[in-house]
Specification:
Helix content: 10-25%
Keywords: Signal
Distance between the termini: 126 Å
Largest sheet: 4 strands, antiparallel
Number of domains: 2
Structural class: alpha+beta
Shape: rod-shaped
Radius of gyration: 39 Å
Number of helices: 3
Strand order of the largest sheet: 6-5-8-9
Oligomer: single chain
Strand content: 15-25%
Order of helices and strands: HEEEEHEEEEEEEEEEHE
Amino acid sequence: MKLESNRNLRKVVLALAVAGYCAIPAIASAAWTTVTESTGAINSTVPWIQDTSATPVDHHVSISAKRGGSKSTAQLAVGDEVTVHWGLADAEGDTDANDASTKATIKWLRNGQEISGAEGETYTLTSADAGKKIGIKITPTTATGIPAVGAELTLADITNGPGDNDGSGGSDGTGDGSGSGDGGGSASDDIPAGPVVDNNVKVVIYKTDDTNKKNLLGTTDILATKTSYSVILYSDANNNNKVDTGEDVTSQYDYRWRFSGTSAHGTAGGVVKDTWNNTALVIPATNSEAGTAFNSSSLTLGDDGVQGYSLSIDYQIK
């Protein structure tokens, strides 16, 4: 009787043990255990700038010009409204909605220096830009990506596109989206490489002591010896043939004096000695003094000195 009881007890214990063993994994498989630590965030590639040509070129932009101061296929000129166009690229296809984010980063450059107040995709060239290279700084910025902001791209000359050779060279950029150099424009732009020109420049030659600065060019007024004559160069944006406030650009140019035509006895004129460059020209009293003062490699005054000549100048951007 005792033996039978022990057997029954062992069967019960064994059954309970088996039941308990099976129940444990059943309870564990019904719940998830969350790991409290995470890895770093998933990042993509940085965005970079490219032009908008049919076959986009990285680290370049495209430009268009609303021609206010030049012919449609000429170099950029004072008065032109220049607009920069670009595309964004990265490996993931991130976008910049309406280009707003990137547009806000654009700064315009004149010979590599930021132009005060010149920001955004459009800039109108002024007389201060004449003879200068125009560039931009632009930072590719997407609306969706991580990282959303690429490296700032500095383009020193937006007219100098891939394949252009104006003697200045320049680099395209690096793999992180950054870059700098003279290169910057697109080969598909219809704008020749080169500095900005000013088609509005006009010249005044006047008697130095004339407070009204009457322009003697184009007149038949008689000039005199023992007299000083001066020059003004101005950018006549409104084409009214007057030197209005802000139009004087003399300091931006080098000029040299020239005796035009022939003297009274038929001696050919020419360029005056370079000691008179960029300064008022004083006509001496005697023929001998004139020869000493003005003779140069391209000018030899005759016995009649400067008598019979007209005055003119040559000029070029500094």
